[in-house]
Amino acid sequence: QAHAKVWHNYREHFQPHQKGMMSIVLGSHWIEPNKPEDELDISKCQKSMERVLGWFAKPIHGDGDYPEELKNEFSFLPRFTEDEKNYIKGTADFFAFSFGPNNFKPPNTLPKMGQNLSLNLREVLNWIKLEYNSPRILIAENGWFTDSHVKTDDTTAIYMMKNFINKVLQAIKYDDVDVFGYTAWSLLDGFEWQHAYNIRRGLFYVDFKSEKKERIPKSSALYYKQIIRENGFFPRESTPSLQAQFSCDFSWGITESVLKAESVASSPQFCDSSLYLWNVTGDGLLHKVEGVKLKTRPAQCTDFVSIKKQLDLLEKMKVTHYRFALDWSLILPNGDLSVVNRQVLRYYRCVISEVLKLNVQSMVTLYYPTHTYLGLPGPLLKTGGWLNQSTAFAFQDYAALCFRELGDLVKLWITINEPNQLSNVYNRSSNDTYRAAHNLLIAHAMAWRTYDEQYRSFQDGKVSLSLHSDWAEPANPYSESHSKAASRFLQFEIGWFANPIFKTGDYPATMREYIGFKNRKGLSYTLLPSFTSEEKQLIKGAADFYALNHFTTRFVIHEPQNGS
């Protein structure tokens, strides 16, 4: 009634010449049924919204009275007279709405009541539209919080603000909700009611312990300023959708990991010189005819049933290249050339030759580590695997064998798949990781040089290695520390292998400087190996193209460890 009296007073005495509008700010949570198909859960959620928001919203924006469910359940609730209902009804020129952390109750009590807390501002705006006959809505307070120790890099607040404002825009554009304004809470850090000074919600950071209480803009203030300037969301740096075609010689392919080879032909019937009669005694079995010998035919690629299945799938897709990996441990079980499994090599040659008949080129990966044992031949694993430099020389011999046996049919080679991801295996120490990477780089370079010097002139193929190449962006684009962290991520993730091969022959200077900095601070005892001048010359330029495996973009933050 107090609000209604003020509204009528303004309406009668001030609004005619001041031309203003008046409302009352109502705050609410938003909850969704634990089981969306359960009518009882839906009913509980509706009751919850009526008790929190409808308690005031229905008298003002509805029929002038409390929700019926509320009156029925709480007999002590005061009753409005008909005159009071008419006096309160419609006493708002717009629906002023508050949505933020203060509106949410502890979540552990809600599932028991068939409810789930939700931060979906779009949904609650739609509920208001449906309940109160599409009122004009102003978001009068909205925002999130950070812990009190967070200063200006309030990254979480940026993403929460982006989510909230985007939900408002979706409600306007897709649902025809009449929202005419948004108000961020709040300008400055301050006393946050029951949370006191334990959280911060301001756009400007305030150091309460300083004498002058300086006001410093946070990242969220810069982001909100950008939203206001652009009046919404625009892809500032991304390329718009393009209606065009690739060049006619653009290659479309499919890739998989290690192709399991058949050790024996799956259709050996033409290799057997015997003649058989079937079911002559009614037993359903084959019976050999003694004394009869037939001519056999030479082994053929069609003897391998699995190849036919692969070909059928590739033909359906109409691709132009097919990438798969050989099984190093199967081809050279001893890790050296003392034992060569010719049957396995024959199987891979059959795959490549049959694929060529479909006018599809094979891109062959020599080494594709997919398991905890790295896919290495057992003897090499026992002697330390990639921690032992002798493995690099063994790989060179293995690569030369494959070039010699298969190179007349293969024009694209990948030596090693994602060597920059092997750190997941060598996790005993950073030193082991860097040592293994060092030997992997040398192994690749020696294999590339072998092809370049001994096979390229008459096989005319190209060789590279494939690097895991996810992109990285600073989680907080307004934070210099996040930008540096994202750049550092790319150097340690991609530049670690790409810089030696495609640029200088050595690791990125950023890596050496950062590792050295941590060592000087006593935060690490890692040593990044050094290349000799001969090794630098060996590695530099050892790739005919850049092969990348890309899956996502990562948001990177700067998070100091060990109190540094």
UniProtKB/TrEMBL annotation:
Recorded hits in InterPro entries, A to Z, give: GH, Glyco_hydro_1
* Cleaved signal peptide residues: none
Protein family according to the UniProt entry: Belongs to the glycosyl hydrolase 1 family.
Q: Which UniProt keywords apply?
A: Glycosidase, Hydrolase
Protein's UniProt name? KLOTB protein
The record ties this protein, via SUPFAM superfamilies, to: (Trans)glycosidases
Q: What organism does the record attribute this protein to?
A: Xiphorhynchus elegans (elegant woodcreeper)
Q: Which GO terms describe its molecular function?
A: beta-glucosidase activity
Q: So which domain of life are we looking at?
A: Eukaryota
**Which terms does the UniProt entry file under GO BP?**
carbohydrate metabolic process
Pfam families linked: Glyco_hydro_1
